[in-house]
Amino acid sequence: MTAGLVQHWLESGRLELPLPGSGRTAERWQGLAHLAEEDIVAARIAEAHSDAVAILHELGGKPPESGQLWGVWAAESADAVLTATNISGGAFTLSGTKVWCSGAGFCTHALVTARLDDGRWGLFAVAVVDPAVKALPTTWWNAGMAGNDTRPVQFTNAHAVAVGDPGDYLNRPGFWHGAIGVAACWLGGARRVAEPLYRCAGGKSADAYALAHLGAVDAALAAGDAMLAAAAAQIDTDPFDRANTGQLLARRVRGIVEHAADEAITRTGRALGPGPLCQDGRHAQRVADLSIYIRQSHAERDLAALGRLAGDQH
After folding, report:
1. What number is the average pLDDT over the span 23-40?
2. What tens digit of pLDDT does each residue of 127-136 get?
3. Closest by alpha carbon to 161, among 57, 53, 62, 58?
4. E strands, 79-189, in order
């Protein structure tokens, strides 16, 4: 179901979003948020594809061809290491296991991080349809984001092409632009999760408690909207982050939007009780999906990093 919806978006042109820093960054993030309002899981895949398009543009890689669906597989684990071996020029082979690969069963291509012989990390473009690339059995148990098809993927001398120089993936300004794109999806998902609360508060039977919960949710969502708009304007003004404030900006946006998502999930449940979660399957699934999705944030660790950056500004 997720694969079909993403494919429909791809074929209809809905994933052809403006690049970050192009002067239309707000439009890009609004597009991602609207996709998440329709389907949180499919939007997670769509965001990764749009991020891959931006990364290839920024690092001089070959643009995706029509019909290709790209993932970005950059999670690292001490227990599963992917290594890259240079065979000639920019051509490499990849061997090992990459964890947390979203869309493992239906992406056609992926950008993958791997360790080079000298210990540095590089970014590589891979055709997932290559027989040397094999998605392993799923270890996913949670109902939330299950349609994301996130699995380990095994590489056995898989052909790959280097994208940029070692370290470029993390060091480019666009890394933090992509982090904000994820937050745009969180915000779209939070809006949809809060819909039952908006409907309840619009009725004559709404009590003061439901209205208070909605007031808190609405303020948090508005703050997220405003922060995304302000961040888009700042990035369009300084797309190469010459002011060196990109990470601070991204962490602020993600912190504010994560709070909005938490408010939407918690207060909608507290205001309406178990009814929507037990009797509305679509709402229950959205709550489960968003609860898992926002855990791409590292919670207090991210807040500590934000606090350190904010402190350095004063």
Report:
1. 98
2. 999 999 999 9
3. 62
4. 82-88, 91-101, 109-115, 121-127, 133-135, 151-162
